[in-house]
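S1.2 Input.
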Amino acid sequence: MKPYQEEYLTLLRSTAQNTGPQADRTTPEAFVEQAVQANRASRRAIEQGTQLLRQHLFPLLDDILAVPLREIEELTQFAARLMNLTSQTDVGLSSRIHAALLSYARHYGLRDMLIRELYQVAMSLYNLETMLSPTDIRLFSARVRLYFTEAASFFDTAYDDITDPETRGYIHRSMGNIALGYTGNDPQTAQAKLRVVTHSISVLSDPDVRAKTPSLPWDTYLYKSHQERTSLLSFLRTGLAGPDAFAQVLESAQVVQDRQLQAARERGRPLEPRWQYAYLAARYHIGAMPLEELLDGLEALSNACADDDFSGQSTFTHIQVTGLYLEYSKSLRDPRALRRVPVCLAGMLRRMLSWIVRAPSTDNNEQLMFYLRGVLYAYREYPETPAFIDLLENVFAARHPATFARMWIAGRITRQLTAWALEDCPQALVGVLDTRTPQEVRSRREALLDFALTAGRLYDTGMVHFINLDASACRGLFEEEDRLIQQHARCGATLLESFPSTQAFAPIALGHHRHFNEKGGFPADFDLSHHPLAPLISIVAAADTLVAAAEETSSRYRPVIPFDQACAVVLSGRGTRYAPFVSDLLQTPARRAALADLVEDSKRQAYLEMYRRRAAMTAL
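S1.3 Output.
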């Protein structure tokens, strides 16, 4: 590879170390200083990485058809280091490179390269889109399915003419992966996905097909397809797959179980937890095991995991098993069994939080966050378990301190702006908390201030989907990533709507990027003008702008601006980006100075609160 490529990979590794969970210092002050320095180092890395790519890579991609074949091979190697089966250090950049290589292959009619790049582009888009899981929001699924289908189509049109075993392998891998492009939560999607995987299994089991390329790892391909069909347990769990699917999924679960048992015996180690779960779940879904026994099995898996093991399997047992326990326990009806759920869940959550606050930033980060989101979306509040907002803030404190601090500071800014609005223009807040008159607004002062504080602490909840996107890359966002990260508004609203304790704040998460005059921002279909929370949404929008002045807490994709400049943005956006009354709150120098002091104090307080939370989680 080129020297700039090696340098960029080194930057990626250093950034992951800086933006991941930091080793906590012995004092709160040391923790604060460490977090601040880590954020600044990450910003410097972005500047360096962007300069490297602008100077060396982007000109090549812009003129890809003129690139010599030797450099095409180097680009292929670089893309593989950015994203492969075991590592996803920069999926977005890998996707951009593979898209250019796909254009190169199409233009020059390089069939083998075309098949490979169709597969790689599809995989990179799929990996990007997994950040939206488990919501039903999808941006790239149709393209993923299209690319995989095109690559798989060569099985029917040109398979016998292709002599390269590796190319034939990409055809079979694409055939099996078409299922990844089916992502809806409905019976039709479940049937389509099952049909695709079953077809792949049929082809891979055909002795005539195998005989054409004996050197291919047929058993591995077949095993992977059985794993994919076993993953359809999620459709069984949610009732989206019919009785016909049970036998097929159980067959695949049995194949996977047998293979894993054999491997476990050969290694002299127990069966991997995820396959223990798959077999138990399949037996439950066909009626061979009661739900209580399945839940006991999940609890046993959680209890058996080692707290100092940070492997992929441990990620599954510490996090995913907790999410599965939450999902399956919703179907319990027996009162005695139901009474055990909160107690068991509380123990699993304690172990999970203690583990995630210590888990290092590694190549397994995206899987870790994927599982964590599953826990959040499946969560249920019990007296014995944390309130949802506490669980959510603990996740941010453990995995992305800057996001925790940003929302914590925004909460205090939102509260202060609301307090000034109560003094200056209570009529502007009419409608918030079902108030109908300015007098009623004044009478509910404390409730409004508490609501405003919590609104600020929750407005960017959807960023839980994009922690790794914000934390890992050493460059600016590409178009696909920008489209993804804009979905944090919808994702946050979807998550907050799931809980009685946070439902009221969902519109604030959804609308905080929508312009007051509805001529800009996102999502474009959010009707801000007629929403009763519109005044508070506009206040939160201003708080989001003002918190950008807090360098140590701002998203690395947003420029850090001086506080006076942030205030100028709010003032100049009067009547367009922000409600006029919100901009008017910052008209006087005295208030701007008071708010600047509040931001400075809040930065320190936010990190001290985070230190307290992390210490409590570690001690569990």
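S1.4 Remarks. The mean pLDDT is 90.
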